[in-house]
Amino acid sequence: MLKPFRGSRLVDGLFVFAPLSLALSFLGAAPLWVFVAAALAMVPATRLLAATTESIAARSGNLGSSLVNATFGNAIELLIAFFAIRAGLLDVVRASIIGSIVLNILLLIGLSMVAGGLKFKEQRFNTTAAGVSSTMLLLAVAGLALPSLYSLTQRAPPLAMSEAVSTVLAFIYLLGLAFTLVTHRHLFVAPRVAPDERQPRYGYRAATILLLVSVGIIALESHLFVGAIEPASQELGLSPTFIGLVVIAILTNLPEHMAALTFARRNNVDLSLSIGLNSAIQIALFVVPLMVLISLVVGNPLHLVFNPFELVSLILAVVIVNYLSSDGVCNWLEGAQLIAMYLLIVIALFFV
Q1: In this predicted model, what pLDDT tens digit does every residue of 308-317 receive, in sequence order?
Q2: Which CATH architecture has domain 9-351?
Q3: What are the helix and strand counts (H, E) for the chain?
């Protein structure tokens, strides 16, 4: 029986950084140390979140499992975004939005294809599901780009424009859920290409309790992490935007990466792709509108105006994953190409 998430004790040992980060913050230590300790503490917490999420998802179908993984993974994104919005770090929030979408559709899917491709010569997936997800991503690109294009050609768009775009994105997301889970569910049922012998690591009750514990730890560490972003970025010589696009994106998407890699190695790349695409779609069509709503409640309105480089990165990511997912077959080279595209974006970001 496969036992994912029972990794090295070293990762679990990083839990020591949870109380350490609290102590450093309480004692007034340098923000860089608080920043690093909080980031390290989130690693085992997200690992626990991934383990409990999989135990809950194991009781769902293929599609339900991918939605559970993506939803709880994006809870981390929301927690960090909430504290960043409250602190007025709106550029960091916008950067983390783009970073998370690009990371999920390039790095997560790319690593999954490589992980599965090194074990199986070719892996097949549901082209119908991939096609619907790709169209949703193109719609998300259009929605996120319009306020930015308005600002480039006219002036700063009114907040009402971002609110209206967010409303439309949230509405089409709900329609997409109805399409995949209710009216056309039969189109998204992919046959398992290998028997799934795994047993849930935790019972439902234990998984639920541990899920709440992990989310609580992540919420606390997110608060400490966000509070140290600006001074830490100055000491590291990195822009807050780079931290949002790369560092926060990686931290907030660790659970999905862990789950997707596990499923790809089981020759269930359908679920791996579904996790990556669903996570990106949820961020663009659900998390973003929720962030805009939260920003209005907090009193720091979030305009959906991204810089040109962020938009170009998003468009390139969606175009290449659209092309590679069109034939229903993947291999390790296609995964390497997606990873290479992500690395090119990160390298460029470092010098921007």
Answers
A1: 888 888 999 9
A2: Up-down Bundle (1.20)
A3: 17, 2
